[in-house]
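FAQ

Q: What does a record look like?
A: Structure on top, sequence underneath. For example:
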């Protein structure tokens, strides 16, 4: 859902599990706020903070959209996938067990 909100320029207020990557994404994108979901007092304080800083919401939404466009667009994802495949091919170039797979993958991209 976070990526959907970012793509729609909607600022994010998220109560997430401690392990969620959403915390990092929201922080890096500067598109909203996130806290761990186990504390209702902190959640209430966060909601009040967002309410009192309404003038920042539009900018947070724009930040999320820009971040999503750069990092999660189809082109960005395909570029990352291509780089991963190239690294995998380089790493396995001398491995006999991967020579056939490497040849097939390389032919598919030509």
């Amino acid at each position: 859902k976070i990526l959907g909100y970012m793509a729609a320029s909607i600022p994010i207020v998220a109560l997430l599990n401690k392990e969620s990557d959403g915390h990092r994404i929201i922080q890096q994108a500067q598109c909203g706020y996130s806290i761990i979901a186990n504390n209702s007092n902190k959640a209430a304080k966060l909601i009040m903070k967002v309410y009192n800083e309404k003038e920042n919401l539009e900018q947070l939404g724009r930040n999320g959209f820009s971040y999503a466009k750069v990092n999660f667009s189809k082109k960005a994802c395909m570029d990352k996938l291509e780089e991963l495949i190239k690294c995998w091919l380089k790493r396995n170039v001398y491995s006999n067990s991967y020579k056939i797979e490497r040849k097939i993958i390389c032919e598919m991209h030509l």
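Q: Is there anything notable about this one?
A: Strands lie at 12-16, 32-36.
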